[in-house]
Write a structure and sequence with these properties.
The structure is a single chain. It contains five helices and no strands. It is rod-shaped. The protein has about 170 residues and is mainly alpha-helical. About 75% of the residues lie in helices and about 0% in strands.
Length: about 170
């Protein structure tokens, strides 16, 4: 019974912590050799623990190397998260101020262009009105000229010339 306890204790220690160790081979020794002395069992147990420590150290080294290879995330950077949030808020405030400034400039430009358009439309309307008045005068003179003198014909030609220079071209209307 004492030998059985020692063997089961040795197996429990090896089976529970035997992560990366090679599988144990079945004992090919005969039954009388199963009864090992205390120091031999202890040596085997110590050897198995040393192997387990070795494999755990390798695993730890591998995990550390994987951590070193991982690119740094912005949130993994040293410093409190509050500092990062404050910086982001400042950047947002700067961008918002820039955009409001640009928006204000564009609004002023739109206002100026609308004012210029209104003035141009008013000038065009006045020019069209003047053109109609001149056309009416030319027609009146034309009717009077049919029976008129040379002086009236000269005045008629001068008014027609005036009309041609002041009237907008067909593509303007």
């Amino acid at each position: 019974s004492d030998v059985y306890k020692r063997q089961s204790q040795g197996r429990m220690g090896m089976d529970q912590n035997d992560r990366g160790a090679p599988p144990r081979r079945a004992s090919t020794k005969s039954a009388p050799m199963v009864r090992q002395e205390g120091p031999e069992v202890e040596q085997e147990y110590i050897g198995n623990l040393q192997k387990q420590v070795y494999f755990l150290e390798l695993e730890s080294k591998l995990l550390r190397e994987k951590l070193d290879d991982k690119p740094a995330d912005t949130l993994d950077m040293p410093g409190p998260l509050d500092e990062h949030l404050v910086k982001l808020k400042q950047r947002y405030a700067n961008l918002e101020a820039d955009m409001q400034g640009k928006n204000q400039e564009l609004q002023e430009m739109v206002h100026t262009l609308k004012r210029d358009l209104d003035e141009a439309q008013q000038d065009r309307a006045e020019a069209n009105q003047l053109n109609k008045q001149l056309e009416t005068q030319v027609e009146e003179l034309h009717l009077r000229l049919e029976g008129g003198s040379d002086e009236q014909q000269k005045e008629f030609a001068m008014l027609e010339t005036c009309l041609l220079y002041t009237s907008p071209s067909p593509r303007d209307s």
